[in-house]
Amino acid sequence: RSVWGKGIGTSVMQAMIAEARRLQWKQVILHVNPKNERAVKLYSKLGFQSVGMVPYAGAADQLKMRYDLSH
Questions:
Q1: Where are the beta strands (DSSP E) in 1-71?
Q2: Which of 3, 11, 20, 46 could be bridged to 25 by S-S, CB 3.0 to 4.6 A?
Q3: Secondary structure (3-state) at 12
Q4: Whole-prediction pTM value?
């Protein structure tokens, strides 16, 4: 928690999106526990859109989020 709010997660995700763009991916998909509000907020801030829930055996259902790289 000592590194929360320092922009590290944002920087890592921006680098990953840039690499996906460089590789000419059309989209990035991720799954996140919807109770992880900090992560959901970060991904939404970066432009990820919620596209549904994914059931996980033995764990909480996960929120599926998508980042469109096609434009």
A1: 27-32, 49-54, 62-68
A2: 20
A3: helix
A4: 0.86
